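Exam prep: given the inputs below (a chain plus coproporphyrinogen III), describe the expected output before reading on.
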Amino acid sequence: MTELKNDVFLRALLREPVSRTPVWIMRQAGRYLPEYREVRSQAGDFMSLCRNPELACEVTMQPLRRYKLDAAILFSDILTVPDAMGLGLHFITGEGPKFKNPVQTADAIRALRVPDVEGKLGYVFDAVRTIRRELNGEVPLIGFAGSPFTVGTYMVEGGSSREFPTIKALAKESPEVLSHLMDIVAETTIEYLNGQIEAGAQIVQIFDTWGAALAPDDFRRFSMASMQKIIDGLIREKDGRKIPVILFTKGAGPLLSDLSETGCDALGVDWTTDLATAREYVGDKVALQGNLDPATLRESPEVIRQGVADTLASYGNGPGHVFNLGHGITPDIDPDHLGALVDAVHELSPKYHE
Ligand code: CP3
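Solution:
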């Protein structure tokens, strides 16, 4: 195994001392980069890009060539899991993800089974191995999956949704059916993330983009419980190193306190909660990752630098902070603006670690 040359991200996730705050960006490989759009058109469509390990590796590496980032993230999608279950994922330009066979009735949900993960998602594990080889120990690699509730919203609604009418009706009218859906997706996700870890992922992040659309009791019963189940089933150490787990529930707010008890190592925080407040919710139990408003990247480099300064100051002194946006970078951002953000983190963060 090649030695890891930059472990500042791993150390911060474990709340160990570091000399500066590590930084990576959600959706760092994506459409804001012209070189991504080039490879994406070469691949034909988004899923063909995900299924091609060499091209998935290439787009994973692109942001690392431009910016001094402290982690790579596997290029894939959270919806590969329901695709592997036979739902028929495709992307329609301007409309986002769609499923040919959504599971909208209790009978369809009860009929769902854990798929052959190695057989159906082996292309993801191939991509992980290819990326690890190409990274050559420069920075660690993050693997990821969606939370069962977030993935479930797409499976049940058939695509993106604003109000989540179908899955919310299930929570109230047929909670045991929704629990079955959560269990099947959680069991599949355990195999899927452990496969990524076996293939070389050194950290895993669970994206819970929509869990906080539920009222707190339902959030705990469905979204948080299913993430807890995943954490309990994950490989937590490999090659003598801990495999940190990051949970990112967008809009978690005070629920960060509950989430800090799940056994994860770090929590993602979106921009609607100050890091200082988040720190009060979680104490010293977990590290925090975040949380500059992605909209700040539309502003001038000076405004971006001030945003970075404010975010670092909000977390304050000591270990346990990973710099990131509060959600993914959007396709309209000028790539040079992300450079201003990354440089500012490198310049302004050391004083919080003296
Ligand atoms: O962060 C990274 O660089 C790694 C890659 C990554 C993608 N999607 C690539 C992608 C990750 C971690 C995801 C996670 C994901 N996918 C989430 C959770 C995180 C979040 O942002 O909330 C969700 C909800 C999805 C589902 C999904 N995939 C949607 C709704 C869309 C359409 C988005 C849009 O704006 O059109 C996708 C497609 C997708 N996944 C793209 C990328 C780069 C754009 C596809 C393209 O090139 O056309």
